[in-house]
Batch of 2 targets.
Target 1
Amino acid sequence: MNTPRFRAVILFPENISCYKVPMTEVDITIVGAGVIGLAIARELSSGTGQVAVLEREAGPGMGISSRNSEVVHAGIYYPTGSLKARLCVEGSRLLSSFCLRFGVPFSRIGKVIVASCPGETPAVEELHRQGVENGAEGLTLINGKELAKREPHVSGDCALLSPHTGIVDTHRLTKTLERHCLGQGASILYRTGLSGIEKKPSGYLCRAEGPGGSTYRFFSRVVINAAGLDGDKLAQLAGIDPDEAGYRIFPLKGEYFRVRGSKGSLVNGLVYPVPERNLAGLGIHATKDLAGSLRLGPNTLPVDSSGYDVDPSHASAFYESARVLLPFLEPDDLCPDMAGIRPKIQKPGGPARDFVICHEDGRGLPGMITLAGIESPGLTSCLAIASSVKGLLKGAGLTR
Ligand SMILES: Cc1cc2nc3c(=O)[nH]c(=O)nc-3n(C[C@H](O)[C@H](O)[C@H](O)COP(=O)(O)OP(=O)(O)OC[C@H]3O[C@@H](n4cnc5c(N)ncnc54)[C@H](O)[C@@H]3O)c2cc1C
């Protein structure tokens, strides 16, 4: 094990002097301080190695991790045996106990996936079968009467009830993960982007760019790519062809609209339609946040120059789609809320893809770990993904 040369340091814009930390060698470098990078850093820094997280934004969780539905999924949708199914079921269990133990706001408000007409009943039954096979807990098929008892203002023929599905405060989750990492001696360098990776016999010579245009190099035995939407660019820096490897990101935007006023109280839990084919998205659904307000979304839009803007003219499409299950809605009830961008590795129109969690030793890059396509249910799965990354490193003899 190398002599630790990193000190635990957290860099904020106002204390840029912290940047003069000597950084020449480190055991493990994680690129990205979203929920995935931070969960991995927490898992790995509880051992003995020196862990550093590089994040080009000024704080944690400013990427995909702060722009999502905040739902802790049960593991229903994904093909049995896939990483998404396994890590979601395991992650949901881990995340709910984590939240309980460390005071992160979390509520099991439950979810219904609703057949809006008899023609959708077989799809709901199939989701039930798959969810049970995946190990999702507590799933029950309920008829129209039972649905009306649970959700009196939701219209539908029958539904799959998932009572364990919950919602979490992603901001508090991210801050808690960050606190644990720092408490265990990991270093987190904000406003610092990894800009070069060069393979050396026993690891990687990394180039980083920090505040004020400063650049420096350091050596890392292990590099973990948890760069979210830029995962393909980072893989390329390491010499991996993202197209050949299947890591190319095809970003897919999702907008949300908020339901104004008190109508949010007409829905008790999460209300989802039958999902879209090929799982490009789960369909425009109704989610509640921990304050009780109701949001609709996300839709699926190719990414354009509007960045994270929400186009107010899309309100009518949201209304048309949502009023099938929520007939109490009126067009004026909706106002633009926010948008997120999915890091899809699924080609537009192509088949759904699983999470990629890969040790790149097969590409001649031992100690390089790629996480690609960590879209939903990535938030739910973050702790299980972290444990899986630790398993990969342990299996390769790269950590204890
Ligand atoms: C619309 C939407 C809805 C979703 N809903 C849910 C849900 O309800 N439940 C669920 O379980 N999941 C959901 N997800 C998925 C979940 O949000 C993601 O899987 C998760 O947040 C991914 O986290 P991450 O850490 O990989 O990415 P990010 O949070 O984006 O973190 C990656 C970080 O890497 C940094 N970075 C990139 N390149 C560099 C570089 N070169 N140097 C330094 N830093 C770099 C970025 O700045 C970024 O902060 C949703 C996603 C979307 C888009």
Note: Residues 1-22 have pLDDT under 50 and may be disordered.
Target 2
Amino acid sequence: MPQTFCLAHLSDPHLTSLSSVHPYELLSKRILGYLSWQLHRRHEHRFEVLQALVHDLHTQQPDHIVVTGDLTQLGLPHEYRQATDWLAQLGPPEKVTVVPGNHDRYVAVPWQDSLGLWQAYLTSDHGGCFFPIVRKRGPVVLLGVDSAPPSAPFLATGKVGKEQLMRLSQLLAEFAHSCCRIVLIHHPPHPDAVQFRKRLTNHAALCDILAKQGCGLVLHGHSHKWQLHWLKGPTLPLPVIGVPSASAWGTERGSLARYHLYRIVPTEEGFNVDVEIRSLCQRTLHFYCQGFFQLKIAG
Ligand SMILES: [Fe+2]
């Protein structure tokens, strides 16, 4: 009897506070993000919601947890430090994988003050710390893509660089037929998932690679919505799944906080995946099972 591997996916926790930010830290694109946080986002993204999610997640005891970006608001060094402490609560680095989001990369910040602090959660099995991250866990290989180089003011676009695309293509080919290949990316790879100013600008190049090489699942964040989309694959269509923000109170875009549990079982043809949706109950501030759906994927 093949063993079930349980993968938890959460995204966009936006867990950091800007209440003690210094004005000089906002002399860039960050001033726009700060105003947005003051007016809207601090009411929407609530740390107590995220804490309730993490508590529930720990009771579910997944084998691994993935976080698809936007842990911070403006990617300030003090936010990176705060997020590092939170990651330590979430789980040990060998059981938690992170990719960055556009809010983590508002403007360029030296590696040692930014992603370098999360290095243990970004390191591939072979020891390197560059994207795509490669982490093999049970029947699964996680391929973590960085889609979030800093973008211009008023934009939250993403892009996957040429070298990363080339390497991703090689990795998808290398692990075909041996693992359930799961691509982690902050920006959804299909352009209709988000507004034009938030799109992945070179989505066509990524979709071409996925169509040629195939994969089991693509998991993303960024839209703060539950989304299921199917991309063209070499044989079967490829499921692309987005999850709402892990800290959302539901006032901004109508989506309450939730996370997904993927229970993955190898079969003769590929993999069966039971997806459990765990959502926030606003009345009790607890998470509960809202439902399930099933996928059969090629891997
Ligand atoms: Fe976000």
Note: The CA atoms of residues 30 and 74 lie 6 Å apart.
